[in-house]
Write a structure and sequence with these properties.
The structure holds two protein chains of two kinds.
Chain A: E1 5-7, E2 10-13, E3 19-24, E4 31-38, E5 42-50, E6 53-56, E7 65-69, E8 75-79, E9 88-95, E10 106-107, E11 111-115
Chain B: E1 4-7, E2 10-14, E3 19-25, E4 30-38, E5 44-51, E6 56-59, E7 62-67, E8 72-77, E9 86-94, E10 103-105, E11 109-114
The chains are: A mainly beta, B mainly beta.
Chain lengths: 116, 115
């Protein structure tokens, strides 16, 4: 597709279960980002990939959160042992290069996660 | 730590009015500043990107200005329309190191334009 694609678009899971969220960036974009948007917290940076490596993962809130990227393309965000406070919209974004000078960042429509 | 503040938090205006949304940031060492639009239940759409060396950017009825030294940006919307109703988010990229890919967002301004 032409844009950043995320799946699933909606996920309801029971507390304690693991979830995987997938992101397909725009073809050719080397930089990929995960953000979280929760009520009252606004948009928070989670992790940044340049190619398959993650030079900045400082926003991951706990060791229950992990992410990987393979083939310089698809990325998966995994949340283990989900908690109710993990309920949020998880947004993926990509841009043509890591340095944003002159490069717009493109966001997907997000994966809406609800932990019950 | 960079902090971004947007004022007002919400704004309701009649159609046709010109309006200004404000964004301020605490650390002036930024790479660029972007304005985004978010419709309910949707992702973010980039509206305007201003590099740190630039003073303003224009796209159609939108004009964004940047005063890096004072840590301020404004988004001006001319002749507002009901279709402009959305949440508008301001975000900065801090200069240096691995933070190039990291945006710091404001809390957004919820705009409602009524007919």
């Amino acid at each position: 597709g032409a844009g950043v694609s995320q799946s699933p678009s909606n996920k309801v899971t029971e507390k304690g279960k693991d979830v995987e969220l997938r992101c397909d960036p725009i073809s050719g974009h080397t930089a990929l980002y995960w953000y979280r948007q929760s009520l009252g917290q606004g948009l928070e940076f989670l992790i940044y990939f340049q190619g398959n490596s993650a030079p900045d993962k400082s926003g991951l809130p706990s060791d229950r959160f992990s992410a990987e990227r393979t083939g310089g393309s698809v990325s998966t965000l995994t949340i283990q042992r989900t908690q109710q406070e993990d309920s949020a919209v998880y947004l993926c974004a990509s841009s043509p290069a890591g340095k944003l000078a002159g490069n717009t960042i493109y966001f997907g429509e997000g994966s809406w996660l609800t932990v019950v | 730590k960079q902090e971004v503040t947007q004022i007002p938090a919400a704004l309701s205006v009649p159609e046709g009015e010109n309006l200004v949304l404000n964004c301020s940031f605490t650390d002036s060492a930024i790479y660029n500043l972007q304005w985004f639009r978010q419709d309910p239940g949707k992702g973010l759409t980039s509206l305007l990107l201003i590099q740190s060396s630039q003073r303003e950017q224009t796209s159609g009825r939108l004009n964004a200005s940047l005063d890096k030294s004072s840590g301020r940006s404004t988004l001006y919307i001319a002749a507002s329309q009901p279709g402009d109703s959305a949440t508008y988010l301001c975000a900065v990229t801090n200069a240096g190191g691995t933070s190039y890919g990291k945006l710091t967002f404001g809390q957004g301004t919820i705009l409602t334009v009524h007919p």
